[in-house]
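Good morning C.,

I know you're traveling, so I'll keep this short. The sequence:
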Amino acid sequence: MRGRTPGVRLKSGTGSHAVGEVVRRTAARLDSHGVPRGQLDAELIVAHVLGVSPAALGLERGRTLTTAEQERVAGLAARRAGREPLQYVLGEWGFRRLVLTVDRRALIPRPETEVVVERCLALLSGLEAPRVLDVGTGSGAIALAIADEHPGARVTGIDASADALSLARENAARTRLVLELAEHDLFRGLPDGPWDLVVANPPYVDPDDRSLLAPEIADWEPPIALYGRDALAAVARGARTALRPDGALVLEVGDGQAPGVAALLESLGYRDVAVTPDLAGRDRVVEGRTDT
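The tokens, ready to paste straight into the viewer:
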């Protein structure tokens, strides 16, 4: 469990309050609390407070922060020093072409999930108005990215968490994208289709592996979206009857799980089963098609 959040203070009246110095001192304090990539996180926090892009921060090095800006940097840095994920600290995060609101109601959108979207878009290519089901939509990242990059797609997101669905609704409003949302437990089967594509990033972390996770994950992200032993199989089985003929299933899986999930899809009768690595080279996405 989390302990008391360590204090991180930028003392007024001592030294420079220029951007470069504030970044340096913030990074040093984050490093002292064991935060990975303290320098990068410090830069992102200061850029966020100043309302500039991280790439433009270098042009602001000589700028002096106001007292209010210094206090805001200190407050955000204190949260990050307590190992709260940077994405939750900032309250928003980029995912493909979108900037989404992120908080503890749902998992943080990650780069490996962008590869899931790439595979979905490739499989939907040539379909004018495909029906897409996003199982365990969370923040709505996958569903909204598909709706954004395939304007004809009619996308539905389901989740067992009412909190996650409220966040997805906020992101749909924020991005001005049309998304149908419904509360639904995947273990009750999937909503009636026929769907052209079913995609899921379901809970796939073994509960016994909790101690192996970084505190940013284990102590902060919602357990309902993290831990599960049977969710991948449940989606694969449910999609067999919910998909149209020649429909596609795309699953994000944990590190080392791809061979087993691919074998499961083949045993269920999916064809054209394929595995795609993420940006780090780990087999992360498993897909297959139903019979024609």
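Safe travels,
E.
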